[in-house]
Amino acid sequence: MAGELPRRAVVAGIAATAVVSLADCSDPATKTPPSETGVPSKQPTIYLPHGGGPWPWIPTMNASLGPLRAYLEGLARALPEPPAAIVCVTAHWEAPVTTLSTNAAPTMYYDYYGFPSHTYELVWGAPGAPGVARRVRALLEAAGIKSAEDSARGFDHGTFVPLAVAWPEAQVPTVQMSLVAGLDPTAHLEIGRALAPLRAEGVLIIGSGMSYHNMRGFGSDRGALDSRSFDAWIGEVVTRDAASRAAALARWTEAPAARASHPREEHLLPLMVAAGAAEGDAATLPFRGDVLGARVSAVHFG
């Protein structure tokens, strides 16, 4: 299969016999037109599961994750209008301070191992958004939060995998944002609060992770039980009022099966950023399903 692929193949044209071309999933007729007033609609803030590795381009994984794929394919249509830009907080990047990608033409970073060779040739060619990155840094500075820039880092799979399914045409300028080393949940809630003004500017904030992420638990009976316990807690907590929600998320380790679901919490912390940016907006859970035998959810605020 890898031998059939051109070097650095464009995502939308990859492996047509194995998976549906991502470009075919985009229906311009269903897209909401931009606001006629010229004022951007306020975007929601989203926490979503990005699945396992480059799953959309591996036929067996793609087939087993059909509900997740369907959710991601419908994501753009669920927005009030096409976003002016995306800020994606990825579980696969940690830095000493909040760090933003600033390359106007980001490269690819294949931060997974042991997958077929063609998955190391994927390209999701969304442009970067250096101006949005500067705006993010200004908001963080105003909140007293340190930040930095990185012009070299490419899109990792926490960013390009879900966004390539949701936006196969790669037309939305995208900034990738790191977690902060130490993984303090309160600090990440505060980062989200600082970014909240972006939403009224038409910028979509996405936290990309997994609401269950225990590599030893995937595919096991124990993991299935633990993930359901933790997922039930998430479903109850995110629908609370903003103050109660934030307080519970800051104490997430007290939740049922918390450490069994997240031995290390980097895949949960993007939820804190999304929840912080939500301010007082209510939450919905438009996707609740199984990934590798574990229950995971997507949360939309606003």
Please outline what is shown here:
The chain has nine helices and eight strands. The chain has 302 residues and is α/β, with parallel strands linked by helices. The strands form two sheets. It has a six-stranded mixed β-sheet, sandwiched between helices.
List key phrases describing it:
about 300 residues; alpha/beta; six-stranded mixed sheet; two-stranded parallel sheet
Count of helical segments?
A: 9
Roughly how many Å is the radius of gyration?
A: 18 Å
Number of beta strands: 8
Structural domain count: 1
Going by CATH, the homologous superfamily would be LigB-like
Strand order of the largest sheet: 5-2-6-1-8-7
Estimate the helix proportion, in percent. Answer: 25-40%
Mean pLDDT comes to 90
Largest β sheet strand count, sense and barrel closure: 6 strands, mixed
CATH architect. name? 3-Layer(aba) Sandwich
Strand coverage percent: 15-25%
Low-confidence runs of at least 5 consecutive residues: 1-34
In whole angstroms, the N-to-C terminal distance is 42 Å
CATH class: Alpha Beta
**H-E order:** EHHEEHEHEHEHHHHEE
Quaternary arrangement of the chains shown?
Answer: single chain
Here the CATH topology equals Protocatechuate 4,5-dioxygenase, Chain B
Structural class: alpha/beta
Shape by Cα distribution: globular
Describe this structure as you would to a colleague.
With 302 residues, this protein is an alpha/beta fold. Helix content is 29%, strand content 18%. Helix 5 packs across helix 9 (269-278) and helix 7 packs antiparallel against helix 9. The protein is globular.
